[in-house]
Amino acid sequence: MGVSIFIQQVLNGLTLGAVYTLIALAFSLVMGILGILNLAISEIFMIGAFIGFSLIMSGVPVWLALPGAMAVAAVISMVIARIGYEPLRNASHITPMLSTLGFSMILQNFATNTWGSDPMQLTLEGWLDTRFHFGLVSLSVVQIVVFAVTLGLCVLTALLIQRTDIGRGLRAVAENRDVSRILGVRPRRMILVAFALSGLLAGAAGVLVGLHYSVITPYIGVDIGLKAIAVMIVGGATNIWGALLAGPIIGILEVLTVAYGGAAMRDFIVYGMMIAILLVRPQGLLGGSSKTSGGRV
Amino acid sequence: MMSSYQAGLVADGSILLLGALSVYVILSTGQLSLGNAGFMAIGAYLSSWLTVSAGMPLTPAIVVSAAVSAVFGLIIGFPALRLKGLYLAMATLGFGEMVRTFFLNFEPTGGAGGFSGMEHVPLWYILGWTAFVLACVMICERTRWWLEIRAVNDDELAAGLVGMNTTVTKLMAFMTGAAIAAVAGALLAHQNLYIEPGNFGFDRSTEFVLAMILGGSSLAAGSIVGAALLIMLPELLRDFVDWRIAIFGALLVAVLLVRRQGILDRNVFGLAKFWRRAN
Amino acid sequence: MANVLEFHDVDQSFGGIKALTDVSFDIPQACITGIIGPNGAGKTTIFNVITGAYRPDRGSVRLNGQEILGLAPYRIARAGISRTFQNIRLFASMTVWEHMLLSQAPRTPMLSRILPSRAVAERGERMMELFGISAVRDRIAVSLPYGVQRKVEMARAYAMEPKLLLLDEPVAGMNHDEAEDLRQTLQGLRDKGLSILIIEHDMRFMMNLCDEMHVMNYGRKIAGGRPAEIQRDPAVIAAYLGEDA
Question: Does A47 touch chain B (CB under 8 A)?
Fold first, then answer.
């Protein structure tokens, strides 16, 4: 009994961890390439969840709702890049972060006025509402979807960054913006690409979290999205692959805390871990020590 | 005579001004704190517990809370010295959330249910504290201590080579900010008569930052303008009251794009000085 | 004559690259000592070791006989070493006058920080007069022309009442007349007892200014002595001809 509950919790933790991984990846793409913290990502994630929910409720199939929400999220993210980041890119790093804070206020207010601040419920039907049982442990179809989509998006992101010209451009901008311009990379376009990618991932995470919990509120941005900052830090803010390790770790840690320590303790544990990492190993678990400088992005 | 509604607005504005000042003092050394709601929570809970459960008069309770919060500022500030810019902002954000969840779990002060039983303070008492803190900060701004703070913000390395102990300067700023936020928290608790952990979330910390950035981040007077603006604007825009957060957000972006130093800056006073000399 | 600074047997490396190898020299009291050498020879590294920005692998740096290696930069500054920077580092938000007040702050008692004392104010005025910047006292320092900013930086450094003043390329950006004025100012300070260590590219300026010179190349000291001796040293001639003549 005890063991199967534990395994069940680990599975649930991995599901939450997958969502964290995607949002943390969204944060660290912008952080690793442009060196700024885009606080609006947590609200883009929330908007993604609402768009996905609304589409599914109006009868759009999940496989279409997901890219739809991702596209909307990417567009919002690109608008923020153009208005809120680019004019400020030569200011200190704090200034563009504050402007993204402005955008997150706008997005959250938009959501509360459009969808109300009460929780929004989704009833899953058909194949989505299936669970597979293995003894006392069960796994829902939604969880499998979450794992598959997360894995797929991570692989696609990795291929894009490591194997394509766009990826090389992004890495060049991450190394040195002025040099990258000499090499023929257009930094303005790369900024837009980085923000768009980050929006796509955050939007996908929103849809997945909605499916997984089947309840969302306009406050999931602050409740879940901001915690992805902790995931990013634990993994290593300038190494985007750190999120792949830290997401599952924090997801499992959080679910186990809820199961064995009490629901209210979980944020304490997650943020505590972030601060501990910042103090002991600021570069994060996978962070850029000199020997891995080639793998900064 | 003021209506009680107007009195409430003035009280809210004063508390917001104190919060903005608490961020301002820390930011003046180039450190952005996104966790001052945490210090505010410490001040609110500790002072309330002291007055309600320990029977202490309010004024000494506020002083004690501010001192304890300053010690927390030291505990947070010391390791935070190793962190710069965004990393410090993220660490303080984490600290703020940790304090909030601590009180969520801390049953002696009511946990999630909140804490009550405080006695209401008159408006003049809140205004008195606000004026006192504001005066202290504005006097500090005219001392050489503030020159040192600005030097750390401008160029920390050069400040060290001019013989300044930048560590002490930054820690002092952090402790001062923590103490001011605690005063704000204590006044909030004895104004609202009920506090819960949700009062001290991330949005509270950002409200402080917002007021200070809008009003002007290079001088204390800017926070007055910012706090007044945030309190007055919803009154002026009653038709759009549902959209006030979005309007504040848009205002923040606009100010950063058009006038990064905020509505007021040092030149406003520099100009006044120039006129005086010319006449 | 006593030495104000003794810089002995210093090795400094970054990663695998040796920036300084076994460098030694003394700075006599009330003298102007120069360090010359091609770019990348290690001149600014010496400044960074003296002011505590770098921790060398080996060696000793003594100020009036007291070891200062390993002290925090601000302690070294308070012990009596102040410097200027090759790429000027003034405080961006401050006027010239505020620079004068600030640079004396660590040396004055706590109370006088509330109201700047008359002594502090007078010294500030004197510094500005000495370097000819009194006319721009209320201007934001970084908004001034390059040459004037260098003077503000020197005034800031000298206002700290240093025992040793380090100047990193002080005449860069100055015209001939300004450089000549500066030479006279610095020699005047030396005659009043100040010890100065100076890095500069302008050889003619250095020959006229310095009492003693040390020549660096590839992180090693290749010569040291009076300017006239340096000029004739075959190793120096080789190093300079070898670079770009």
Answer: no
